[in-house]
Amino acid sequence: MALVSVVGASGRQGLAQMEQLRAAGYEVRAISRNADAFRGTAFEDVEVRPADLFDQASLPKAFEGSNAIFFNHPVQARAQRAELAEAVGIAGKAVGVKRVVWNTSSWIPDRPGDPFTYGWNTDGINRLFRTGVPATVFGGVLFMDNLLTNWVRPKVLHEGVFIYPHGPKVRANWISLDDVARIMIASLDRPDFEGSWMNIGGSEALQGADVAAALGEALGRDVRFQYSSPAQFGTDLADAFGDNMPAERKAQFAKDIEAFYTYNNDSPTRPFEVDVVYQQSRLPGFQPERLVDWAKRQDWSDEAHRPSGG
To answer: Hey, what domains does the chain have and what are their CATH numbers?
Structure first.
């Protein structure tokens, strides 16, 4: 049975990847600084190996014996993603893994021009590939699972309002983290994905009102869309992380999020959209889950367990 080590296993992306890896018959190892991260969960029996992405020497031992690595960079280290991707590549090559798969968690620029912070993805891809480790990179443009977080879900659930910083003309190919994980898994046995990258998303390019309608259908109630200014959204998002983000970092994080969504709303590159025709040609037979179907199978209650920021 092939062993896949998941970096960032205790986060929302890592949990979805471990669940889908198990379902696909893979053995899973969690890479986490917190050895008790999975106590009392469905992953309590998963092997946990400690590692610090900023400590290069800690990585080879954590990855030793792995056939593949799924890499999720920390949300609070967005600016260091290239450095961390390179570190994972170096360690993966040292222990002989057959593939490193990285989800950049955002759009990857496909042409010259001003890429804003997305340029860190391009830099990270280049640095990862240049380590010589066999690697594949996916750019998941926007996640349905964000709708379950503490900066979105309570208003949807209790007030029937979907609040997001998308302008009226912005369309987004929302994709579930389960589908991201399935795509990552599908790439493992695909030689044509080695040394390649691709933006990925759902089949529907939805505006804010479309998302609200899908949520309303799933919940059996009226849900309306309300535009949030990027500035307000940045503050709300920073507050949602609570004690997981040092107070001195919150103000800068909020400003970064404000700048990010201001760029996305105005950019002609449309970073939340993907070429679904090209995606289908690369992944024949793969049908992304529709937002309404994803929403119907979620636990929207206040009692549901949610990872940090969620």
So the answer is: 3-142+175-202+270-288 (3.40.50.720)
